[in-house]
Design goal:
This protein is α/β, with parallel strands linked by helices. It contains 16 helices and 20 strands.
Length: 454
């Protein structure tokens, strides 16, 4: 039978970018929707030498409309991914569903969203938004573990007509909202980012993390977050995620001594942790935990933002979400306190009592239930009486408080940290700890799941 395929279409080109040497095997190539092909190419092949399933929508067929046949093709791919424990990549470029007055379009999307939900946390799912991804398709795409967008692509449930007023594109808006983890210049760059993510994540939730040969970065003596991350990560291994969302938080995948880890960090230069920062780290930790990717947390923060704006944004809910994500996660968790760790932020991100496997601190770390200036007001307010320069006296007492109660050494005396590190030794210590935790197995109480306040 003669099949009228356009092998030069964007849908096929995108798959050729994804699979090793552009080689893949198509599935259900004869499937038709109305009087045309079904508008999606479903296939399997090898990415970085490992089997991956993928589908690529073709917006030139049926005006990019999705129907039951396309949904069945895509759902079968999810089923195959589940049966074989292999990742799945969805390349989205569709204008929506067939609108013919019937329930078929809703049935089609319901089938695909359910198929994605069934394998969530079982095999990695990556969505690449390479054109328009609208309506229920946007929900399907955002059900994946990672969303990669091209800068000119569109992602929305209902059209947003005022983006031009803000000077934003749909991709920029998605990045700022924490929906898109990575935004790239074009199709090829987006697929390359997808390939790198597939290199870093395990094939499924029962596989060990990938291990590669590696080269160390040179150690740079600096307390800037970029310098710290580069000093502990292997050379050219860092893929930052959600860069434009939650400015006081940082998340990335990388390798340390050849093994994949997730790095979650607080960025002291961007003020205290807001609701968005908490959401960003919580989501990232849950993703890592689903696939047993160890999490290294770098802490240097005065804590959570207490502004009226943060409270109105539901910051307490998001703080609880962050704390719950860390407490529930059973993957290996190691914290390095490189600067400040105050109060609830220490409890949520660094405390061994809150389920960290190891907590390390740099020699100059300041660890305290309260910020030292606040602690002085609370504990030593009487010492401020009669001071000619209250501000200067307060700073003097804060330094005294820090030296007596809030040093890394004082915390170690109380088992608040496991070891105090020279910054130059951080990577070696992390590699040793990760190796020691490689066989970690934890069984919790029987339950469906915990009830994090989303």
């Amino acid at each position: 039978m003669q099949i009228d395929k356009n092998l030069d279409s964007a849908a096929y080109k995108r798959l050729s970018y994804l699979f090793d040497e552009g080689v893949y095997t198509e599935i259900n190539s004869l499937s038709k929707e109305k009087d045309s092909l079904s508008g999606v190419v479903t296939a399997y092949g090898y990415v970085n030498g490992s089997l991956v399933y993928a589908y690529s929508q073709d917006s030139t067929i049926n005006n990019g409309a999705v129907g039951l046949m396309q949904a069945q093709k895509i759902s079968k791919l999810y089923s195959l991914a589940a049966k074989t424990g292999r990742p799945i990549v969805g390349i989205h470029d569709s204008n929506g569903a067939f609108i013919d007055g019937s329930v078929d379009s809703m049935t089609a999307y319901g089938e695909m969203i359910n198929a994605s939900s069934v394998i969530s946390g079982v095999v990695p799912q990556i969505s690449v938004i390479a054109g328009t991804c609208a309506g229920s398709a946007a929900i399907l795409a955002c059900s994946s573990d990672f969303v990669v967008m091209t800068k000119d692509s569109e992602l929305f449930v209902t059209p947003v007509f005022d983006l031009e007023k803000t000077g934003s594109t749909s991709a920029q808006a998605a990045a700022k909202a924490g929906t898109a983890g990575i935004v790239c210049s074009d199709d090829k760059a987006a697929i390359e980012a997808c390939v790198e993510l597939l290199r870093l994540v395990p094939e499924n939730n029962l596989s060990g993390v990938p291990v590669y040969e590696y080269t160390d970065n040179d150690f740079v003596s600096s307390d800037s977050l970029d310098a710290i991350v580069n000093s502990i990560a292997d050379a050219d291994s860092v893929t930052e995620l959600y860069k434009d969302f939650g400015g006081a938080a940082y998340t990335s995948l990388c390798t340390i001594s050849g093994s994949t880890v997730g790095i979650a960090a607080t960025n002291k230069t961007k003020a205290k942790l807001t609701a968005d920062d908490c959401t960003k780290i919580a989501r990232f930790v849950r993703t890592c935990d689903a696939f047993a990717i160890p999490v290294v947390t770098i802490v240097d923060t005065e804590g959570f933002d207490a502004s009226t704006e943060s409270f109105a944004a539901g910051s307490i809910r998001n703080m609880t979400m962050l704390t719950g994500a860390y407490a529930e996660a059973t993957t290996a968790k190691i914290t390095v306190i490189t600067g400040k760790a105050y109060g609830p932020a220490y409890v949520a991100l660094a405390s061994t009592s809150a389920n960290a496997d190891f907590t390390f601190a740099w020699e100059n770390a300041v660890i305290s239930p309260l910020a030292p200036l606040t602690a002085v007001e609370f504990m030593w307010h009487d010492k401020l009486h009669g001071a000619e320069d209250v501000a200067a006296k307060r700073n003097e007492l804060a330094a005294e408080y820090t030296a007596k109660y809030a040093t890394a050494e004082a915390c170690a005396y109380k088992n608040g940290v496991d070891e105090i590190l020279n910054p130059a030794d951080t990577k070696a210590k992390l590699a040793q700890a990760l190796d020691a935790l490689s066989g970690k197995r934890v069984s919790g109480l029987p339950k469906k799941h915990n009830n994090i306040p989303f």
